[in-house]
Design goal:
Blueprint (H helix, E strand, L loop, with lengths): L2 H10 L5 H5 L6 H14 L2 E4 L2 E3 L3 E6 L1 H7 L3 H19 L8 E6 L8 E6 L20 E2 L3 E2 L41 E3 L2 E9 L2 E4 L4 E5 L6 E2 L10 E4 L4 E5 L6 E3 L2 E3 L1 E4 L4 E4 L2 E9 L1
Parallel strand pairs: 3-4, 11-12
Antiparallel strand pairs: 1-2, 3-5, 6-7, 8-9, 9-10, 9-19, 11-13, 13-14, 14-17, 15-16, 15-18, 18-19
Helix pairs in contact: 1-3, 1-5, 3-5
Length: 287
């Protein structure tokens, strides 16, 4: 059973189902949990071959109506979300610089049903010399991962110190080895004079991947729309590179890659991805 499914079942069992009733609205706890997973993946920093550090301090910003509704449960909900992050980190072999904390905050610039996640790495007292990571500001999210209008960004320092994350607060952070950094520049660039092409095949139709990321889902906002009732609005995301990967975006039914139910996997040429009742073939080739 996946980490998100275990989290959802645990949450629904609390306080005689009180949480389950409260969340019968726009923002669902499993969607927030999925956003925290993505925050870990997107901000993972490789320190060495055996250690990948991810944020441990998370702030979930909610609209005023959502915050007023959920604030009475913020303590228990924060603990449950922190436990989910801990379970996911164990599954992915991530490590933390300090204790995990998830806090709910009100954001007046967000409409009902929208939320935003910020994160940073805070060192514990025994790790005060360790570099910290800048908070990452995220776009507002709708349940299912749908991005709403961008809210006001946090104040930026006039001259961020070297190593600060673009768009973040400018905290210094550990330098990531160049070989491990996500690819930049044109998609598919592998070596001088060569180019890797990426595409997917759905029901015999080829969809070229011309950007670094490709979002699949039932929404018209997705890069490739899949008309399948078992597919969420923003179901999963393919990232091309060396290697290419696929990441579940907090979908309801999850993803299956080469026969394995997972939230994140490495892709190879010919990988079979199943979302809902739809099979997707991932392809890549030099030339």
């Amino acid at each position: 059973m996946g980490v998100l499914k275990k989290f959802e079942q645990r949450l629904e069992g609390l306080v005689n189902g009180t949480f389950a009733k409260v969340f019968k609205s726009e923002v669902q706890p499993v969607e927030i949990a999925g956003a925290l997973q993505r925050e870990c993946d997107n901000n993972a920093t490789i320190w060495n071959r055996d250690r990948t550090v991810v944020p441990n301090d998370f702030i979930v910003e909610l609209s005023a109506p959502d915050f007023e509704r959920l604030s009475p449960y913020s303590g228990q909900l924060g603990d449950e979300l922190a436990g989910m992050v801990r379970d996911y980190a164990k599954q992915q072999r991530y490590t933390f610089m300090g204790p995990i904390k998830v806090t709910l905050e009100k954001a007046d610039d967000l409409d009902t049903g929208l939320y935003r996640v910020r994160s940073r790495t805070l060192a514990s007292s025994s790790n005060q010399q360790a570099p910290e990571r800048a908070p990452a500001g995220g776009a507002p999210q709708r349940p299912g991962g749908y991005g709403g209008p961008q809210g006001a960004a946090p104040p930026m320092p006039s001259a961020p110190p070297p190593g600060g994350r673009p768009g973040g607060y400018g905290y210094p952070q550990p330098t990531q080895p160049a070989a491990q950094r996500p690819p930049s520049g044109p998609v598919g660039a592998s070596a001088p004079g060569s180019r890797t092409r990426y595409w997917i095949e759905i029901n015999g139709t080829r969809h070229q991947i011309s950007r670094a990321t490709l979002v699949l889902g039932r929404s018209t906002e997705a890069d490739v729309r899949i008309d399948d009732p078992g597919v969420s609005r923003r179901h999963c995301e393919i990232r091309t590179g060396t290697p290419s990967t696929i990441q579940d975006l907090g979908s309801t039914n999850g993803i299956v890659v080469d026969g394995q139910h997972t939230t994140r996997a490495t892709l190879r040429d010919g990988s079979r991805i199943v979302v809902g009742s739809t099979t997707i073939i991932y392809r890549q080739a030099e030339g």
